[in-house]
Structure formats: structure tokens, C-alpha cells
């Protein structure tokens, strides 16, 4: 059993992380912090945990955190960077579900997040924790930067064709749709049900913080810098991301060969499910599960459309963090992540 | 490991049963039938099961069913009654999630379900499978009548006060709200999203088939016949039942004593959670879990309001069936039912 | 054409009022105030008004308000009471959509709203503006207290039987369900879509501010003080209230006589629609319309169930305010309120 | 007053048409047919029309239809083609909201709709009724082919740049999202709320019937054949289409010049609203209104993203049909179409 702490436990990623860790056989969730809710029982805020979790939120306490084997940060950007270096120095491993260590370039961070990076020395320690593309680097890492939700869906969808060098890098468009939980557990008028239900809209079309993160990772996969048109939309639903990914092939591929590239690329992956050619995955097919389901289409020769769905809180956040934890500590990668998606 | 079969596996209760049984460590789901989908892989209909279940729907095959240790019926009323007697005769145990064996009086069945009961001899074998009220009779049963979803929420909410003889039996009103999955996985215009979303309405106010079932069980608890005003409503949501239960006390009780009656009645129950006095449980707090959460209020002296929430597909159907199966076969009652509700 | 102002125009009732007034042929919406949005174009906040409304929010300006023929208050309680007396003194008529002038007893106001009433002298000027029960008093009024949303649905549902003296006043239970817009356009975590969608819960079961308002008006209709069990629930939908109203008859009535009481009571009302006996109205049948649809049931002799649905923002707020305005100024009562409900 | 008939009145487009026509000052809806519901009062099926409409569904009666000034077809493809030629011969004008007369090429019709066109002679009479692009031809038409919902949103969004010759025709991708009412009022399992709510998926990615219709009209606008990648998605909401339209500029344009192309192209259109540059329209901003709101973005030089939203049942179907009717009969184009969208 390892002892783990969560910093920032009152948001959706912290809440989902606690749901998963509570059921994990090798983990004792020992500490969960929240400045605002210090002293409140966790299960009074999250009644689904009644009978499963006896923790009480504590204030941020770096001493207590230092006694953990692993600390998860489920905090807005700018928080982890101030606490992580000391924890690392004390030998605590860290998985940051926020954005502080995802961009390798601190100048890019400053540009997109509007603040200087105050722990740029630690960037070199950070491993981008998308196991299906970076697994080899994770077990030995001290600091894992857990990917954003959109980047997870987009990168997994594009990876096979980019790794195979088959896509024209000038033609990538990711039209993405997210449930409202992706915006966090925040008191904002635009997120209340009468504003967000029975409607949808795009946002950040001219620029969104996940774009440089996606471009960074896709460029690594492609072996050359590339750019992406990234268009997120807010959907009237709770969980789920659907990435509709467009690109043109550099040279002709039959449908069967196209499908084979995906099937072979992900052949042994426990959390990526390649559907039959020209399928249409629904987000609910992964609700609550750590699975990414992918289908590929070629509506006209050379025009590829990849459909990639995840649960933004699981494979897009907390589930992926548990997967990274399993890799860090040598547990079976699927341990604690076997839940079947909840349908309907 | 026991081998189990499901008759009628394409509805929501069959689908949820399969989700739970697939993850149950002592069960091998060996057979699932569907006249309409015979030959179809189960996971092509229910993609959440991809990677978890290799079954294919078979046609109804009584020989194959007879080789099972246990058969679940997840069928419309009128189906199980024609197959159950023979299975029982062959030594197969049966849990019927439909309505055929819930009413002890075959005349009442005929009146409410519009058909004669064709297996009334088997009614004597049937045990009403609500473990919190009938647990003692279940382990030795050959045939378990799994309760309806509304009855589960209503009976659990009223049981403590009725068993204590505290309620005036003339004053019971159950105002119930159900998600649309309670109406089944059926191609009906009134259930399509544009009809059922962003709206609500009552139905069956002048009479609903779950009323005699509830009255039968509440009368047993009260030790005398009683009647109930039962008002179901269709809610614009997928899962969940919220029962708002009204009644007047026969004699004065303090709030603390009222709460104590509930706490003591359910003190050792793993699947009933009594909230602090005057709480307001949300259906989402039990989404996907086999839990019934109950809160009690006394807005004015003598006027009691009990709030009882369940997931209609879990504690209201498939989860309760697994709980009954655990009792039938001597497994720990909570085995395979430890899932934490999915929030948000 | 009359010139009207709206104080507090950024909430849902103000927004809906502006939608209705913009289309009203005898009204010029001349002024709309909002402390927070002063200087913002109204249609930048509410894009449905683009091309229909050129107003800009102004700060609260009592001088400008005094130049209006009529001022609507769409403000939280406690605001109108500080501005209304002076406007009345200047000859401006007022319709308050908030709660300040609904309770005739300032002590009751203080008890339920947690503040002393600072304009109790004006309470005597206030007419409770539910035209179907108080129409005679409205045309000559200077100050109209527009009813709450729940009270509108509940009072209209009970009125025929109470006015006829047919209900046992000890047996009234109003189990009410409201869409989330009833909670206002407010940045609260519990209202965001991931919290409020696909779930439901009761609230204020032990006491809600609309209860004394309903009891006050029902007592007047009944001619004697009565009490009510009032149970509101938050529904995962945008608009709509469904009141499920219970009561016992004092003496036997046939179903036909029961129906006739409703049909005759509301025979000439343009905005109350009595459905055929034992119908089940859906809230969507009044979405966007100023209509209350009512159906009555008698499931067992003597047990009455009345179903009453309104759009909480129209008949439950802004539409009713326009109806009151029409009465105040001698316009046809239905003017500007002829919209057909939006289905689906 | 003109007398109009509707063939196929029980679907969503027929229902919405009736809502609009009932409120139209120059129209008497005189006849509405439905084979399945003949003899049923319209307002018993659509209770929002209670008090507004006294019609009863009649069976298909070509004699009665021939007495109308105008007949709308709100029928599945294949119905209108068998009745329209005779009506035209009898001097009745026709607006077909179905697909029978949208494709000018009967071979394309046969390919995409799986049946031979049985009235190909009438294709020459048909005018594609998207007033913003084909207005000049409508007043004199005998037969108007009312556009599909997706085509309306997509064509209006691309038209300014295509008409200006600014788009590279090899780069068009229309990623479209539709509410479930777009699938019609049909009893299909995949449309019931538990299947369609809180989830989303693409469909028809490899080919959808609206693609040839869009390509036909866009090619006319561009003056040369072009192809489009069209990707529809089913959204968990009732009404609304959001088209996210991608394309690359043939030559550089400043943001201001790009915006000016849209503003000038639609400068005098009553039903197209060009938002400020880089806005994000929400579908709810047009709910119930005959408006198309459009915003344009240029996230990187040369990469254009156009966002176009409509209510699929209004501007995407019934409202557009009324707009066409107004043009056919010389009424003001906006008559009966002034409704303000319902928000929230």
C-alpha cells in the first residue's frame, strides 16, 4: 500500500480521483487538501463517497504532504509550480493534473497562461504522462505532467497516422466537443443549467490553451513541427469528449490499410479500443471508464476522419493519473481501472 | 463460480445485469437470450462491454437454460410465467426481474396486468426479494420475485415507521419521480429525447401497476391492509428514482426520535444509507450504485416527509437481483456491488 | 403607448419581461437598470434580442424611473421596498416581481426573509396580482405584488375546490417540481449543469418562503386559515413548474361533478386551460406561454389529485406581470401574451 | 387570407409549421392530413395548440387539397413526388419541406435516396427555396423545394466567401451538430432519452443525404463544382444546429476585410445576423426564431472558421417555408416570423 495525498480536492478531477483511489487495492488516500473546505468531511461534499471514505479536507500542509509516497495536484495552473520543487526535493513523487508542467517551453507557458513559470527548473524533470505515447519514460519519473482532456483525445486519435508519417501536417483540424464538467466545478453563470442545457456553442476558436499542448506532442510524434486548427465546443452534457479529427493522407491508402494502421498501433493497449472501420463511437460508451474508443473513416479518397471519444474526467484526467501512478509504482497498469462504462 | 443465464438481455435491466455480473468474481455469465438479436454479439449492441464480454445473444433455448445454476428473467410480464415452472422442476433457481411473481394474488395480477396468471402454482414458491425486509426467506428460495423500481424506493422509505406502528395508514401518499430508463429500452415516440427532455409530467395517476405491489408489501409490514396514493412522474433524466413520501404520525415524536427509528431500523444494512435529519438526497448520489439513501423531515409536528432515492436500474432492478443472487448462493451480500456512485 | 422601466434587468425574470414587452404593441420599454452591467448593451448579454432591442443597461437612476408610466422590479427581495414608496408618491405605478409586497403581514415577511420590512406602510397599497383570483382589485391599484412562481401554480390548482368549500383543509399537500431557471440567473455551484443535470432532489422541505405566501392566499380563498405541506424539488430542466396537489374531499363528488367545478370556475379565463378529466399535462405544453394547464384526478373516492403546470418565467413571473400591466392600463388582458408554447 | 393545407402534419416540421401558420395574419390553415391520425383533433396530439387551433387530422384527400391556395408537404421523401404534379396541374402552389425536389439531378436523387424519382418532370418547376441565395426565383415559382436543415446552416455560412471567390474549394469541411428533433418525431430506440441524452456521437460520416444537396448549392454559388467533407453529429438537445465551417482563403485577407465580406453580403437580410468578429453564437440564441446567426474567425492567417447557428425546425424547416410562402404570395417577407428566440 502506498500513501497518497491530493492537493485541491474539491474540483471534479479531485473528486473523480478520490472515487478511483478509494477503490484501488494498493493505495491509501491519506490526505486531501482544500483551503476553502478545510475541516469539512469529504463525504458531506461528495455524498457518493458516504460509507467509502472517512477523510476530512485539511488545509494545505506541506509537512503532511512530504510524508506521502505520492502527491496528486488537482489544482488550477500556478499552484503546483510553487509546491512541487520542494516535494521533489523531499523524495515525494508528483503527478500534476493541472497545466503547470505540460508545456516544455516556459515561454510558451507564459504566453498562454498569462504568468511567468516560477519552477522552470522542474520542467526538465517532468514527463508528459500519456502512457500510450510516452510509457517508457514514466516508471522512472519523479514528476508526471498529466495531459489535458482535449489533448488526450486528440493525440490518441492522430498518433497512429502521424507516427506512420501518413498525414499532410498542413491539414490537421480537430473539432472537439466537451461536456460541461470539463470547465470545472466552478460557480460561473455561463455554466448553470439554464444557460448550458439544450444549447451548444464553440469557444476559444481563435486560440485555446490546449492547442500548444497538442501541437507540442503531435510535433514530437510527427518528428517535425506542425500546427493544428483546434476548435472546442461546449456540449449540453455532463461528461465526455468527442474529438472529430480531420486530415489528408500524403499518399493513397485503402480503407483496410488505414484501419490496419490503427489496429496495429494500439494492438496491445488496454485502454484504447479501435472500433470496426467507419464506426461512430458515442461518448456514453466510455462514461466512467478509462477507455478511449477510436473509429476511422475515409469518406473520399485521401480525406481521413478519425473519431475519438473519452470520459474527460477519467481517461482525460483522473483515470489517466491513476494509470500513471500504476506505472510509477510498478503496479499492473490496469489496476483499479477495470470499471465498465455506465450505459445508459 | 456459478453459471448464470439471462433471458431477455436487450433491455436496460438485462444490460445492467450483464454489466454487474461481468464484474462479479463468483459468476460466469454463460448465456444471454434475445429472440430479436439472436446471433448478434452483445458488445456490438452495448459497446461499453467491449473487451469485457464475449457473449453472443442466443435464441430462447430451454435446454441450455436448464444447464445453468441460476437464470435471471429480464423480460416483460407474461414471459417468465411460461418458462419458470419447468426450470424450477429441473432444479434451476430463478430470479425474475419482471412482474410475474410479485403479486401473491393471481386475481390481482390478472386485474392489473390484463392477463390470466398461467403459473399460479409457482406463486407459492416465490419470495419477494427485497432483502432489507424479506432477507430471512431468500437463501432457501427457488424463485425470487425481484421488486419493481418504485416499490423498492417506496417500501424502504416507509418500512421503519410502518414496522414501528407509527404511521396513520390513511395518510400515505407516495409522490415519485423516475428517470426515463424506468420505461425500458423501447421504441416509443413519447420517450424520444425531443418529447421527454426539458419537460416533465405525471402518468398513471389514477392507477399504476406498482401500486398493488407496494400496498401488498406495506400491508405486510404494517400488519394490516392499507392503501396508498401513488403518483409517478416521468423526469427528463436517464436514471434515478426519487420517492417523496408523506404520512402523519399516530402520536407525537421528536425529530430526534423520528431519526432514531430510521437509524436503528437500518443500522446494519449495507445498502441503505440514512442521511442526517432533514437532508435532501439527490438521485445522482446513487447513480450506478446499489444504494438507497433516505432522509426524514418533520416540517410540522406530526407531518412526516421521507425522501428516498435509488438508481432504478441498480437497487431498483439489476443490483438488487445480484444482491438476491448473493443471498441465494451464500456469497457475501455485497460481493460485486461495491461500486461507488458516479458523480458528477 | 406607455413608457415602462425595469429595475434589475439581468436576471431571468427581467430578461423574459423584456422579451415580452419588446413585442407588446402598447409598450415602449424605455429604461432598464443594472448596477453590474450599466453601460452594456442589453442585446450583448441577451443575444436573442439582437435586432429587437436597442437599450443599454443604465445604473439605478430614480429620476429617470420617475418619468416612467410604470416600473417593474425584477430584483431580489429587499430592493423594491426601498424605492417603491417614492415612486408611488411621484405617481408612478409599480409591479414588483420580487417578494417584498406579497406577504400582507410584515412580521411574517421578517420571519421568512430574515430582514425587517422597511416599507410596511406601502403594504396596504399592494394588490396581490393573480388576476384569476384578484382581478377586481388590480385595475385601480398603484402597486401590484406579482405572485411567486410556485404560488401561481399551486393557488390556481387549488382555487376551484377551496372556493367551493369542498376540501378538507387539514389534508393539503403540494408536491412541486421546478426547472432550474426558477433559482435565478445566479453563479452558484449547485446550479451548474454537471451538478443539476441528470439528477433531481427536493429542497426546503422543512420550510420554504413560498409556503406562507401560498397559505395566505389559499386561506383567503377558503375563508379560513389553513396550512399546507409544501415540498419543492429541483428538476433537470430549464423552464417549467409542475404542481402535484393532494387533498381530500369533505363530501363525495362524482368525477363528472369534480371536473365541472374546475370547468365552471375557469370557464372564461383566457390563461387557464382545464384538460379533460384524468389527463396528465406536461410542462413543455406551456413552455414560453402564459398558460396554466390543469387536470384533475380522483384515484380513489374522496382522494383528489390536481396537476397544474406553468412556465415559471411566464405565467409564473414575467407573463403574469404583463397580464397585470394590461389590467392596470386598460389594455386587453391578453395583449402581447398570445404566444403559442414552443413544442418540442 | 389564403387557405393552406399541410400534408403529413404529425411530425416536427408539420407541428412547427402549424404553430407558425396559426399565428400568421394572412393565412387560414384549413386542412391537415395524417393517415395514422385521421379523425384525431390536432390539439390532442399537440397540446400547445389548445385554444389556438380547432383542426382535426384528415386522411389524405387530394380533392380537398386541390381547393387550397397552397399545400405544404411535411412528409418523408417519396410522398410528395406522387401528389405534387397533379396539384400543380390544378393550379395549387406547393412548398415541399421534404427532399423530393431539392436535388436537380434525378440520378443523384436515386443514388442517395434509394428510389427512382417518379416525378422528374416536375424537377424543372422546382425552385430551391433559400431566399438569401435564390430569392429572385421564388415569387414566380409554382413549386418550392424547401432546403434541408443542415444545408441551410452550411450554405448561409459559406455563401459570402464563395460568392466572393475567396475560398480554396478543396478545403471545405463542415462539422455540424444537430439537436435530436432533426431526426424527426419517430419511434426509434436510438432516439429515446436514455440513449440520446448526456452523450453525443457522429453519424453518416462516410456519406449523408444532405451532402449532395449542399454541394449542389455551394457549387452554384462558387460557379464551379466543389466537394465538401460533411460530418453530422447528434447532440443531446432538442432543437438547434451549429455548423462549424472550415476553409482556407485563396489569398490573404485582414480580419476586418473578412468581417466586411459577411456584413456586406447579408447587409439587408432580415433573418441573417452577422455577429461581431470572432464571436461564438449559441444555438439557444435562435431557439424558436427564424434567424441564422453567423460569426467568423481567422485563428491563423488564411484559416477561416465560420460558426453558423439556426433552429433546425424554424429557419431549418418550417420558418423558412413560411418565409417562402410570404415571397410566393407577396406578403412582407417577415410576416408571422417576428418571434424573439426563447432564452433561457
TrEMBL record, chains A, B, C, D:
Primary localization class, coarse: cytoplasm
EC id: 1.2.1.38
InterPro entries reported in the protein's UniProt record: AGPR (IPR050085), AGPR_dimerisation_dom (IPR058924), AGPR_type-1 (IPR000706), NAD(P)-bd_dom_sf (IPR036291), Semialdehyde_DH_NAD-bd (IPR000534)
Pathway: Amino-acid biosynthesis; L-arginine biosynthesis; N(2)-acetyl-L-ornithine from L-glutamate: step 3/4
GO biological process annotation, one example: L-arginine biosynthetic process
Molecular function (Gene Ontology), one example: N-acetyl-gamma-glutamyl-phosphate reductase activity
Highest rank taxon of the organism: Bacteria
Reactions catalysed according to its record: N-acetyl-L-glutamate 5-semialdehyde + phosphate + NADP(+) = N-acetyl-L-glutamyl 5-phosphate + NADPH + H(+)
Keyword check for NADP: yes
Compartment list: Cytoplasm
EC class (word): oxidoreductase
A Pfam match: Semialdhyde_dh
Enzyme active site: 149
Keywords from the UniProt entry: Amino-acid biosynthesis, Arginine biosynthesis, Cytoplasm, NADP, Oxidoreductase
CDD domains (UniProt xref): AGPR_1_C (cd23934), AGPR_1_N (cd17895)
Domain named Semialdehyde dehydrogenase NAD-binding: residues: 3-141
Gene Ontology cellular-component annotations: cytoplasm
Record-stated family: Belongs to the NAGSA dehydrogenase family. Type 1 subfamily.
Function: Catalyzes the NADPH-dependent reduction of N-acetyl-5-glutamyl phosphate to yield N-acetyl-L-glutamate 5-semialdehyde.
Protein name: N-acetyl-gamma-glutamyl-phosphate reductase
Organism: Acidithiobacillus sulfuriphilus
Amino acid at each position: 500500500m502506498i500513501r497518497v495525498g491530493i492537493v485541491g480536492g474539491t474540483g471534479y478531477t479531485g473528486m473523480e480521483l478520490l472515487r478511483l483511489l478509494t477503490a484501488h487495492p494498493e493505495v491509501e488516500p491519506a490526505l486531501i487538501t482544500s483551503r476553502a473546505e478545510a475541516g469539512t468531511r469529504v463525504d458531506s461534499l461528495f455524498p457518493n463517497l458516504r460509507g467509502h471514505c472517512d477523510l476530512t479536507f485539511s488545509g494545505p500542509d506541506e509537512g503532511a504532504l512530504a510524508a506521502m509516497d505520492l502527491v496528486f495536484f488537482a489544482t488550477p495552473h500556478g499552484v503546483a509550480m510553487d509546491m512541487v520543487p520542494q516535494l521533489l526535493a523531499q523524495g515525494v513523487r508528483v503527478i500534476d493534473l493541472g497545466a503547470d508542467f505540460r508545456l516544455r517551453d516556459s515561454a510558451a507557458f507564459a504566453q498562454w497562461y498569462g504568468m511567468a513559470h516560477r519552477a522552470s527548473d522542474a520542467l526538465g524533470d517532468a514527463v508528459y504522462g500519456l502512457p500510450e505515447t510516452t510509457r517508457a519514460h514514466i516508471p522512472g519519473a519523479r514528476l508526471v505532467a498529466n495531459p489535458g482532456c482535449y489533448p488526450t483525445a486528440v493525440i490518441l486519435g492522430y498518433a497512429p497516422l502521424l507516427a506512420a508519417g501518413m498525414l499532410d501536417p498542413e491539414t490537421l483540424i480537430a473539432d472537439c466537443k466537451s461536456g460541461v464538467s470539463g470547465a470545472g466545478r466552478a460557480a460561473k453563470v455561463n455554466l448553470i443549467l439554464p444557460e448550458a442545457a439544450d444549447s451548444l456553442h464553440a469557444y476559444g476558436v481563435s486560440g485555446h490553451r490546449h492547442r500548444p499542448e497538442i501541437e507540442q506532442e503531435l510535433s514530437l510524434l510527427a518528428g517535425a513541427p506542425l500546427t493544428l486548427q483546434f476548435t472546442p465546443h461546449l456540449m449540453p452534457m455532463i461528461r465526455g469528449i468527442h474529438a472529430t479529427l480531420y486530415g489528408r493522407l500524403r499518399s493513397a491508402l485503402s480503407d483496410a490499410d488505414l484501419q490496419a494502421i490503427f489496429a496495429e498501433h494500439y494492438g496491445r493497449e488496454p485502454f484504447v479500443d479501435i472500433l470496426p472501420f467507419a464506426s461512430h463511437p458515442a461518448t456514453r460508451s466510455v462514461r466512467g471508464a478509462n477507455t478511449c474508443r477510436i473509429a476511422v473513416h475515409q469518406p473520399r479518397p485521401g480525406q481521413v476522419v478519425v473519431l475519438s471519444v473519452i470520459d474527460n474526467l477519467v481517461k482525460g484526467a483522473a483515470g489517466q493519473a491513476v494509470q500513471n501512478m500504476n506505472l510509477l509504482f510498478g503496479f499492473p497498469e490496469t489496476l483499479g481501472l477495470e470499471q465498465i462504462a455506465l450505459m445508459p
